[in-house]
Design brief:
Layout: H1 8-13, E1 24-31, E2 37-39, E3 47-49, H2 54-64, E4 68-74, H3 91-102, E5 107-112, E6 126-127, E7 130-131, H4 137-150, E8 154-157, H5 164-174, E9 183-188, H6 195-201, H7 221-233, E10 237-241, H8 247-256, E11 261-265, H9 267-278, H10 284-297, E12 302-305, H11 308-316
The structure holds ligand PBG and zinc ion.
Length: 317
Amino acid sequence: MRRLRGSAAVRSLVQETRLHKEQLVYPVFVIEGENIKNPVQSMPGIYQYSIDRLQEECCRIRESGIRNILIFGIPAHKDEMGSQAYDENGITQRAIRYLKAHDPDFLVIADVCLCEYTSHGHCGLVDGCHILNDETLPLLVKMSVSLAGAGADMIAPSDMMDGRVAAIRQGLDAAGFYETPILSYSAKYASGYYAPFRDAAHSAPGFGDRRSYQMDCANAKEALREMEADIEEGADILMVKPALAYLDVLKTASERFDYPLAVYNVSGEYAMVKAAAANGWIDEKRIVMENMLAMKRAGADIIITYHALDVAGWLDE
Ligand code: PBG
Ligand code: ZN
């Protein structure tokens, strides 16, 4: 076996998986207000920007060669119905308009979920302690149509309500957005790895947890049923989330489905690497590139990651 490991040239010749900038998606947090660039405490290198400061981030993204952005808006006002989520002039709608005007070459993917916009922090409407499914669907549809109207190139529902992909597909078509693809967070697990994100997006649930709608981390076959359902409902791209603790699910999905497959290398995965690197316990570049290749090897076509700009820089070296 060592004959093919003897030099960098031969190793590169037989390298089975490769990473390209085109496959990376960079999440961006946009917050209501002016002149804001807030560091996210648990995610070194990640900031919340107000729209008037977004230019700086846009330049960094463009210079890195990354073109794909996943946008998260943080509204100033939250209510029971998450009404800022589907407001013409909501923070996310305005941010998308800004991004598309600033650089039409950016591919802007809009996360669709109510948790950043609801006073209770849940991804759907609530009745007492119960998270309502079918009552939530029309709001997700309204949000999707509104974000597509603002210029989003792709709609990414992350709420985990049943039937949302079908409802959103129908709603987008009825509004004339036939050509807007749906990237579905199909297999989204109830995970401790989202904790830093909830600081970044102010979306922690006010009571209880998300286990009645997000998946149980003990289950893999169920993830395939979620994906089958999303395909039937009209999803264009499937996602597994989080990434590294769920590579088995990703691998099986890549063998089972002939669909583009995305994986979300989430906030907690990022935070762990950053913390260990800051302590000098690991080599950040090496660990991040190893993680990226692990996701590719397991079958990811698309990687959503907070490391995207750093990875782009390392790919250039
Ligand atoms: C909204 C949403 C979450 C993430 C992406 N979209 C949080 C959650 O479900 O609690 C997590 C992303 C991350 O941790 O990086 N539903
Ligand atoms: Zn949510």
